[in-house]
């Protein structure tokens, strides 16, 4: 079996985005039908992706199995995988990649569209399943969704930090002086807004609109009550606040 660097053009085809389109992600397309392969690559290329197309199961494994990845081969953000392939079928490729711990998102393409076939494909490790014939618009949309989902899942938790306060918005978690504090949903939203715009002065009406919503019916003193509760959980001395400061005649400022 030849290495990917030694493959002839009949075995693997490398395509990159043309013109002013910026390449943002790399996708491997595994499809042995020339017409379908070329159409998929063209559709992905037009959306700004860089595609590497291969036509058999052994070649894709050379790129993506542990030995290949450790030898410095280019990494990919998505695998578009036909099931009916020469040498090794798509289901076995899925099983092997997942067994080896490879978490690359996999979109299966197959002419078999029964519920049993789809369930089997997902159970062996695929992330999505698209039945032939399909539109190129749907294919590209599914590719984009899988890449976005993977990026979100692997990206570090974005934290908001100010002095001794650290907020993890995705986890709805707040640490104050290294200790976790419990906030109500409104308190959490208030603090998130404050920490997202430090030093900005907010009027009571603006805070009501942002946190309670424009349809809120009630007294603006609701804001004052929640600010007091929030200070009690954040401040060392709530009567002399360090974080949430009152700006007389205007409203509140964080920091």
Pick out its properties.
13 strands; Arc Repressor Mutant, subunit A; disordered N terminus; alpha/beta; six-stranded mixed sheet; four-stranded antiparallel sheet; Rossmann fold; elongated; 255 residues; 2 domains
Shape: elongated
CATH topology of the largest domain: Rossmann fold
Tally of alpha and pi helices: 9
CATH C-level label of the largest domain: Alpha Beta
Mean pLDDT: 83
- If classified by CATH, what would the architecture of the largest domain be? 3-Layer(aba) Sandwich
Structural class: alpha/beta
Based on CA atoms alone, the radius of gyration comes out at 26 Å
Strand order of the largest sheet: 1-3-2-4-5-6
* Elements, N to C (H/E): EEHEHHEHEHEHEEEEHEHHEE
How many domains, as an integer? 2
- Beta-strand content: 15-25%
N-C termini distance? 64 Å
- How many DSSP-defined strands? 13
Contiguous low-pLDDT stretches (5 residues minimum) are 1-23, 66-74
Helix content: 25-40%
GO molecular function: phosphorelay response regulator activity; transcription cis-regulatory region binding
Domain Response regulatory: 26-147
Modified residues (4-aspartylphosphate): 82
Protein name: Phosphate regulon transcriptional regulatory protein PhoB (SphR)
């Amino acid at each position: 079996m030849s290495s990917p660097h030694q493959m002839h053009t009949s075995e693997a085809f490398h395509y990159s985005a043309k013109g002013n389109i910026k390449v943002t992600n790399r996708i491997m397309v595994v499809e042995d039908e020339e017409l379908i392969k070329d159409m998929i690559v063209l559709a992905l290329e037009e959306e700004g992706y860089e595609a590497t197309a291969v036509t058999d199961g052994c070649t894709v494994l050379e790129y993506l199995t542990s030995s290949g990845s450790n030898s410095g081969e280019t990494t990919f953000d998505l695998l578009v995988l036909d099931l009916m392939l020469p040498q090794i079928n798509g289901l076995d490729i899925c099983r092997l990649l997942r067994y080896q711990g490879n978490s690359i998102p996999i979109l299966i393409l197959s002419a078999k569209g029964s519920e049993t076939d789809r369930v089997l494909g997902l159970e062996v490790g695929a992330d999505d399943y698209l039945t032939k014939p399909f539109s190129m618009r749907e294919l590209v949309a599914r590719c984009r969704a899988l890449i976005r989902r993977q990026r979100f899942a692997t990206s570090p938790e974005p934290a908001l930090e100010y002095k001794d306060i650290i907020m993890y918005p995705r986890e709805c978690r707040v640490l104050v002086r290294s200790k976790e504090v419990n906030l109500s949903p409104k308190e959490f939203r208030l603090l998130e807004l404050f920490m997202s715009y430090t030093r900005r002065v907010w009027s009571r009406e603006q805070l009501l609109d942002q946190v309670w919503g424009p349809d809120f019916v009630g007294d603006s003193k609701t804001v004052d009550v929640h600010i007091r509760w929030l200070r009690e959980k954040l401040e060392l001395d709530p009567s002399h606040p360090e974080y949430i400061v009152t700006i007389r005649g205007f409203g509140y400022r964080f920091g």
